[in-house]
Amino acid sequence: MKIKKRIFSLALAGALTMGLLPAFSSPALAADNVSTYTLQIPSTLTVSAAGWNETSGLTAAVTSGDTFDSGKKLTVTATSANSWSLKSGDNSVGYNLATATGTYSSTATPASWEFSAAELNASGGTNKAMGIIVDDYSTKPAGTYQDTVTFTAKVDDAAPATITVTINQSDWGGWDTPITKDGVTVSASMIDPMDGNLMEGGTFSTTLGNFTKIVVTTAACDASGTGWSGGGSSKTWAGTPASTVSFSGNFMGMGMTQTTIVCTIVPKN
């Protein structure tokens, strides 16, 4: 009687870009410019079956006593020595690096991870799932199938948080009085709070930072200007971020509908 045995193993290694991986240390871009973080990854994974095989995951944490910069994030990516295949000689079995169970696909994008400053600064750090989804290997010959995955961690700028300010017609004041709400001011040559009209041009301004988007919904719009698009009952500004945005023409509720203004703002540093 012959017994065939297939042994599948995956070596997991860390590549240092910034911060601390197992047995490595280096400064990270934290608030005081000297803080470090740790990134823990399992050293090996032995495949137990086709399909989902889970590891203990990735754990990232700032070094005790330090604070990771809220404007930064930690990004972790991975590469495979065998192009995402476990190989034994000329034989190979494909697999996907993933964060959850699923069906193997030869065109799947390898998983990557992002850790926010809040996740790094949390007590004990944050753990995120990691595993592999292995293709069916029932017809493969016996052998030791292996691959090495290298993880690279680096500190990037985090996408800035945005502020949304919604101005309803009920927030308007008196006739021709600039509309002010939550750090945003809307001015126009003629302001009609009863019918919801902003007439003959004006400006949107904010003390919070820079507008990235302004959407005005009303009965009819013929407003125009740099960065403005749309027409009919809605106009959108999405030009170069700025603290003041101007318009020509009119936004007209005409007493037929409520005029609503929604502003998206990137706050000041």
Detail the poorly predicted runs: 1-7, 11-34
Mean pLDDT: 85
Could you tell me the radius of gyration in angstroms?
28 Å
Strand content: over 45%
Strand tally = 21
Helix content: under 10%
Largest beta-sheet characterization: 9 strands, antiparallel
Briefly note the structural class of the backbone.
mainly beta
Draw up the topology in text.
Blueprint (H helix, E strand, L loop, with lengths): L5 E11 L20 E4 L3 E3 L4 E4 L3 E5 L9 E9 L4 E4 L2 E8 L14 E4 H5 L4 E3 L2 E4 L8 E15 L5 E5 L11 E3 L2 E9 L4 E10 L2 E13 L6 E10 L6 E4 L3 E2 L7 E8 L2
Notes on the structure:
- This protein is an all-beta fold.
- The chain has 2 domains: about 5-155; about 165-265.
- The protein is built from 1 helix and 21 strands.
- It has one helix at about 115-120; strands at about 5-15, 35-40, 45, 50-55, 60, 70-80, 85-90, 90-100, 115, 125-130, 130-135, 145-155, 165, 180, 185-190, 195-205, 210-220, 230-235, 245, 250, 260-265.
- The strands form 4 sheets. Strands 13, 14, 15, 16, 17, 18, 19, 20 and 21 form a 9-stranded antiparallel beta sheet that branches. Strands 3-1-12-6-9 form a 5-stranded mixed beta sheet. The protein has a 4-stranded antiparallel beta sheet with strand order 4-11-8-7, with no helix packed on it.
- Strand 14 and strand 15 (about 185-190) form a beta hairpin.
- The radius of gyration is 28 Å and the shape is elongated.
- The chain starts with 5 loop residues before the first strand and ends with a strand.
- Mean pLDDT is about 85; it is low at about 1-5 and about 10-35.
